[in-house]
Every structure is written in C-alpha cells, then in structure tokens.
C-alpha cells in the first residue's frame, strides 16, 4: 500500500487472521447482512426528501417517479464502489483522497470542498432536520418546540458519544423500518392507480416547469457525504471478516437491498401524495398539507401517522449529518476516523451544536446554504470521477478493481451528475435569469 497512508489506518490486509479474528468473524456471520446500507438509506430519507416527494406527488402525480428510480440506481453503483474501496484498501474515502492527491495544493482544494459541503453545509441542514423532527412531535403533543429540540439534540449526542457502530446501526435501522411501515400503510389506504405508477417509474418524462423538481429528487438521494460514510461503515461491519470475498458479497447485498428500500420509501411517500392529493385536485406546499389530505381516510390518527413518519425521517438525517461529517472531514485532513477519537468528536459536536443553534433561534442561514449547495455541486462530480479513477487502480484495488459493466455505469453517472452540478450552479447564481 502507499507509504503516505495515514498512520492510524489498519495495515492488516483483507483475509489476514489475527488473534481472535476467526471468533469475531464467526460472530459477525450470524448477523443479517445489513447495516451500512440501511444507515445510508436512513440518511437520505430526511424531512427534505419527504417534503419534496409529497410536493412532487401532489403536483405531478407519478410522472417523475423515474427520477427516483434513476437516483436509486446511481446511488447503488456509487455506494457499492466506495464500499468496495473501504474493504479492499482499509481506507476511508477521505483517507484515499489524501493518498491519490499527493500535491499540497490538490489536498487543500479537496479539504476546502469537503469542509464547506459536508461540514458547514451539514451543520446548516442539521438545523432543518432537527427542526423538522421537533415540529413532528410538537404538532401532536403540544410541547414547546425548544424543549423538544434540546431533547432531540441530547439524544443524538448521547448516541454518537458512544462511538458504537452497532448502537447507531440498531437505532437508525429501527427508524427506517418505522418510516417504511408508516407510509406503506398510508399508500395502501389511499390506493393510487398501479398502472400510472408503473408508467411513471419506467417512462421518463419531464412536465413543463418540473426540471428543478427532477433535480431535487435526484439530489436528495445521491449525497456526497454518504460516499464517505459507506467506506468507513463497511470496515466497522465487515472489516474483520476472514474471507474478503464474503465481506464484499455482504457489502454488495447490503447496498443493493438497503438503498432499494430507501428508494421504495420515497416512492411510497410520492404515491401517497399522488393518491390522496393529485387525483383529488389538491396541491401541497409543505408536508403538513398531506396530513389534512389524509384526515378523511385516517381520521384523528392522521396527524399521529404523519408525525411519527416525519420524526423517524428527521431523526435519522439529524444523526447521519454529524456522523458523515466526522468520517469525511477526519479522513480528509488525515486524522483518525474512529468516532471515539478527539478529532471526530470535535467535528460531530460542532456540527450538532451549530445545527442546534439554528434550530433554537430560527435563524435562516440562506447564505451558508448557498455556499454549501455550491460546494456540494462541485464535490459530487469530483468525488464520483475520483472514484472511477481509484476503482480502476490496480495498485490500490488489486483484483477488486472495476469491471467493464461498473465502468460503463460509473461513466454514465459521472456525466449525469456533472451535468446536474453545472445546472445547479448556474441556477444558483442566477445564470438562467
């Protein structure tokens, strides 16, 4: 491996059995082959995704469902690559960036992009996620929103302070299950037409005025910090497996199934709004509008159903933001990615505190979010292209490098995310008038 690898990264190659390695691997094999992928799914299904899906379903029916299908496929391809990178090299994506970009200038640019997009932006979005989570509870309980915000921040802080991958996995997986069941039941009650749903999923069309909505649907699923998360989480879950090929298969299965579940939840939310609002000529500007639309069908349970679903979505994103920032920034600046390490704790605490201040004060960090969006627009294609380079490196990946199919899919995704980034940036700075 390259000599410039950060000293804290394990140098034990895949397949090497150390003391107690066999026993630990055996214990891991008894678990279901899911975890990192579910955390990734939990992170992209936040209040923003829920609201975007509701507004889309209410405004355009199911005609933009194909954008969700595409974004799920793109996410699976990219997340599978970064998971393979983590298991094959024992490097997080941030650490791998430092290995490949050896010049000081290139590293400095990458650090600025990662900190702006994932650190500063993550703190801004964490405020929105925390607020959305709190509002879900205050709506039905009547508690003061500030009290709920503080309680949520303490819960997230306690969970991350444990530094336990297993605890984080269990909590976020439970939230995904709750979220999925809540909206699946509501979609079944609403009963949108299956034929129109299938057509929307597989026949790409963009109604007039829906281009930005299409980009938003893709942008809420293909998230840069999730690529950093995956490369670290797979090492936590399967990094000690004796058989590297088994670890790779488990990681791939986890990614495909879990991200598909996340995409299915997004589609189910859209289908609910489609059946409850679009077909009845109702429109939506916020997620709460769906609650009113569901009241004739669910009665007094409607506010509780929506509140539980929104709480699960908000809590998972509010946890994943600081978690992703800790892994991404720590690795990129050459520090330990262990969640119990001081650098990682400083990063996630900072993100959580800033997000909490935003949530408690009601401050609308428009300029910060604009900078974060611009950085995200630049970071995603840069990281996607980097992944393609490193995944074809025999020096780093060995026999786990990309094959022809992965390269074709990856190249297509790079072209699409680069085009979307260009459009986002030009729109962000007003070039479209």
Percentage of β-strand residues: under 5%
Number of strands: 0
The average pLDDT value, as a whole number, equals 81
Instruction: Tell me the span between the first and last alpha carbons.
Output: 50 Å
Count of alpha and pi helical runs = 18
User: What gross morphology would you assign?
Assistant: globular
Helix content: over 70%
What's the main sheet like?
A: none
Secondary-structure-derived class? mainly alpha
Give the low-pLDDT segments.
1-29
Order of helices and strands: HHHHHHHHHHHHHHHHHH
Radius of gyration: 21 Å
Outline the fold blueprint:
Elements: H1 21-29, H2 36-44, H3 47-60, H4 65-89, H5 93-100, H6 104-141, H7 145-161, H8 165-190, H9 194-202, H10 211-219, H11 224-238, H12 244-276, H13 288-298, H14 301-332, H15 342-361, H16 366-391, H17 394-397, H18 404-428
Helix pairs in contact: 2-8, 2-11, 2-12, 2-14, 3-12, 4-9, 4-10, 4-11, 4-12, 4-16, 5-14, 6-7, 6-14, 6-15, 6-16, 7-14, 7-15, 8-12, 8-14, 11-14, 13-14, 14-15, 16-18
